[in-house]
Here is the input.
Amino acid sequence: MLRYMAGHNAAHTKELAELAGQLETAGEHEQYQQVMQAVEEYRQANARLQGVLEKLE
Here is the structure.
């Protein structure tokens, strides 16, 4: 399950970053910043999950 969640979250992180780019292009800079903050938080959580997986292997 951890392996699935790490991969699943990584896919969503990429999608969120793409959405953020669209917001920036549309001139929605504040919303862009908020989504990019969420992207960073996803990346941090994914790194934690990956660390757990590495220790379990």
